[in-house]
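Margin note: ligand = iron/sulfur cluster.
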Amino acid sequence: MKKSLLFSLQDRPTVLVSACLLGKKCRYDGKKTVNPSLLFYKDLINFIPFCPEQLGGLPTPRPASNIFGGDGMDVIMGKAKVINVEGKDVTENFKLGAYKSLELALRYNPILSIMRKKSPSCGIQTPYCEAKNGMGVTAALFKLYKIKMIECAPNDLLIYTGAFLMLLNPSQV
Ligand code: SF4
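Resulting structure:
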């Protein structure tokens, strides 16, 4: 017999997601953004929201930040710094937030982490660095630990992601 399309609570896949994509007001400017297509999956997925910059002790709102001397991978390796637009060095906050986010990933063992596009923390690619196609700090750490990631912006449709999740859990459909 064909099973229900809805996952039972304990069978739902766990997915980490940048909290701002779920409408949490954790962005640097304190504004709310949301990816509406994520809400479509709320009965299928256990979402674990995370915000590395808040986990790293930075307030909201906060000045925007850029990576100097490389990208997020270079920050993790101690070769680059994160400086906010007021000139304050926030490298340690970004690293702490990345490691606390990694703790969540290791604790919950998600099948996927959905990362906010372009962010100097969460972006798999970020323009806010001095490296071509450079990564955000948390995305770089996740890459080192082989956490599976995709990135999206608030307006991106995640229909294909949903299909991907179903493929990963064929016994549920
Ligand atoms: Fe927080 Fe990442 Fe969203 Fe920035 S992109 S607000 S660090 S969750």
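The first strand starts at residue 14 and ends at 18.
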